[in-house]
Design a protein that fits this description.
Layout (H helix, E strand, L loop, with lengths): L1 H12 L9 H7 L1 H4 L3 H17 L3 E6 L6 E6 L2 H7 L6 H15 L9 H12 L4 E5 L2 E13 L2 E8 L2 E6 L3 E6 L24 E8 H7 L6 E6 L3 E8 L2 H10 L5 E6 L1 H10 L1
Antiparallel strand pairs: 1-2, 3-4, 3-7, 4-5, 5-6, 8-10, 8-11, 9-10
Helix pairs in contact: 1-4
């Protein structure tokens, strides 16, 4: 495994400019590849590409019919390049730790974990580049502020027309990053993600069977019992845990009665983004 990590690091290091890298150049410049037959090299190269992809780093073969140039380009290596700046980080140890955590938490089976977008967004945020993407079929052009993992969902906070908005990253497609760096010098330090703003709490009072509440109460936070008996319960809910509340209401659907509700518009906005 140590040799695999070594080759992966050497592969990334070949891409130190915007020029395309040919297959022959890759084989000639990585010692472990040189003595292999063509078939063995292809197998090893494909395995190494798959390993890099698990880190969000993609080697993409480009063969534009309108250009004489062809070969591999790289994307998603922004985090790796930032790690190189820190002499205290040993890359093989980092890769081993990452793969262990990935296996432990089964990131590859979770739709919320969008490696390629995360790496590109980190690059745009740190270099203060404008980004553009499709979001539910609508073209967006924004200034990114930060990303956050909340309740198993990755979010992007970004300014669109001077208004701070939150986007679910798994719904972002065709992400493009602007060429110019440092387009915006400073953000409003008071800006928060929607769930960090207390004004976005939804307030609910509902009545539902006691047994349903006891079975499903772990799904969200912010519930408070107003009154209860053997049959049913009156529950007060003040929360910005919209995903947890959504799961809870879906599971008790048809069995609860709404007694009071405030700020439901924020919950509706969340539902429109799912």
């Amino acid at each position: 495994m140590k040799n695999v990590f070594k080759r992966a690091i050497e592969l990334i290091s070949l891409f130190n400019s915007d020029a395309l890298v040919s297959t022959d150049f890759i084989k000639d410049n990585i010692k472990d590849y040189r003595s292999l037959s063509e078939q063995s090299f292809r197998r090893a190269f494909e395995r190494d590409k798959s390993l890099l992809k698990s880190f969000g780093i993609n080697l993409i073969y480009e063969n534009d019919k309108w250009s004489n140039e062809k070969g591999y380009s790289i994307s998603g290596n922004y985090v790796y390049k930032e790690l190189l700046k820190d002499d205290s980080i040993e890359l093989s140890t980092f890769f081993n730790t990452y793969l262990y955590l990935k296996k432990l938490y089964f990131f590859e089976n979770n739709k919320f974990f969008v490696l390629e977008n995360i790496s590109q967004l980190l690059k745009s945020i740190n270099e203060k580049r404008r980004i553009a993407f499709d979001y539910h079929g609508v073209y967006k052009k924004v200034k990114p502020v930060g990303i956050r993992l909340f309740n198993n969902i990755w979010y992007l906070a970004a300014f669109e027309d001077k208004k701070l908005k939150t986007f679910i990253i798994k719904n972002i497609s065709n992400l493009k990053i602007g060429n110019k760096q440092n387009l915006f010098s400073q953000y409003d330090k008071k800006s928060k993600f929607s769930w960090e703003d207390k004004n976005t709490d939804i307030y609910l009072e509902i009545n539902l069977p006691t047994y349903l509440y006891e079975i499903n109460k772990h799904l969200f936070h912010g519930g408070k019992i107003l009154s209860t008996n053997i049959q049913d319960i009156n529950l007060s809910i003040k929360t910005n845990d919209f995903l947890g509340l959504y799961k809870f209401l879906m599971l008790v659907s048809g069995s609860y009665r709404v007694l009071n509700i405030k700020n439901e518009k924020y919950f509706k906005e969340f539902l429109n983004e799912i």
